[in-house]
Amino acid sequence: MFNLIRAHCFSLSRARTTWLLFAASVVCALVMLLFLKRIGASESSLGGIAFFFSDLNVVTLIGAVLATLLISNDFDNRTMQHTISAGHSRAQIVTSKFIVYWLFMCLYLLPFVAASFWIFYADAPYTFGVPMGGMISAMNSTTQISTAVALLLSLIIVYIGQTSLAVMLAFFLKKPTFVIVLFYAISVLCGQLAANNLNWLNWTPFGGDAITVTADSSLLAICLVSLRFISVCVGITILYFRKTDIH
User: Fold this and answer.
1) Does pLDDT of 133 surpass 70?
2) Which residues, 6 or more positions from 22, have their beta carbon under 8 angstroms from its beta carbon?
3) Domain-embedded: residue 179
């Protein structure tokens, strides 16, 4: 399976879209900082625009596109069929895809992590002007570096948990358009439901407890919920892919 992981990483690293996504992540993090700075100067009407460039929203879009790039394309160009014919088990294929996906999602989150530490050490206020979740709110909830690091690591696990659903959808639906639209719709719907404080949603990384993590949150419980959700996504995908005919 290690060879599969290396092959997937090499393939993604050669794709132009991979680095366009990273560039988009960098630009969004910088634009978010610019808007948040102005909001901190009392231009609160910019809060909605800043949210569009925030980690909460960008992770959803980039996660969906990355899933199609890593998985849907392999179905279209028959790479998946060749991998199976080469003797790799379907469980190995699914697991390697998830691992590579998580690695690249961590890469795409790095600009927002850097922006978060900038906010952590900045003297000027950086705020959405309204209650909001994600890395920015997490940084505004603490003044201790150890707590800030723990919050960011927890949110990375939460985001990986959320976007693991996109990987599962890519194996189920295969078509990039369907995957992107459906995953984004699910994320938006869960965001609306989380705003209504639905308790059952907290059993997933889409719950309000996960996306609004602060220094007062139970980080271990939030991480365990996300890891359990990841395990479920991987398990369901393996079971489904084992029984799927690849043409």
Assistant:
1) no
2) 107, 108, 111
3) yes
